[in-house]
Every structure is written in C-alpha cells, then in structure tokens.
Design brief:
Strand content: 25-35%
Helix content: 10-25%
Radius of gyration: 14 Å
Number of helices: 2
Structural class: alpha+beta
Number of strands: 6
Largest sheet: 4 strands, mixed
Order of helices and strands: EEEEEHHE
C-alpha cells in the first residue's frame, strides 16, 4: 500500500493499462497497452522513484508518441500527478 512503510526497505510497483477505446486528439489508441514500472529506495511518499514506461510494440510511432505524452504526464490528468514523485525516468 502506498501509505505503508516498506517491509523490505524498498518499494516497487507495476501498473498496467489497456485502452479498450480511446484517442489522443485524432490519434486512435484502441486496443493498446501501457505499463509503468516504478522503484522507490524507501517509502514511496518519502523518496524519489525511478520509473520506466513500456509502450505497446504494436503502436505506430504517432501512437507511441501520444501514449508517451499521456502516461508520461505531459497531457495532464491523473498521470501528471505522479510527476513530483519521479526522480529518474529510465529508457527512451
């Protein structure tokens, strides 16, 4: 649980989304998947996280760009609320 202290000294979480139906502007995202992996070297509310965003390999370059903006927090919404917790984005 996000508010509990870690039992092993560090925290890790995987969050996955499947888009049944949706679009970013005029870019269709139907049927695509996104996974966010996060690691915190302590309590998740007291340390900065290292994160990696995995975008569906079936997505076109335009769809990957849209997914990256949405789930990377640049498009606002709930993913943007994670921004203050992120210390390092891995990959890309």
């Amino acid at each position: 649980m996000l508010l509990s202290a870690p039992t092993s000294g560090e925290c890790g979480v995987l969050v996955a989304w499947h888009i049944d139906q949706g679009a970013y502007g005029d870019v269709p995202l139907d049927g695509l998947n996104v996974v966010l992996a996060a690691h915190a070297p302590g309590h998740m509310l007291q340390t900065k996280w290292e994160v990696a965003l995995y975008l569906d390999e079936r997505a076109s370059p335009v769809q990957q760009e849209a997914l990256g903006k949405i789930y990377g927090g640049q498009a606002g919404g709930e993913p943007a609320a994670l921004g203050p917790f992120i210390g390092k984005a891995l990959g890309g």
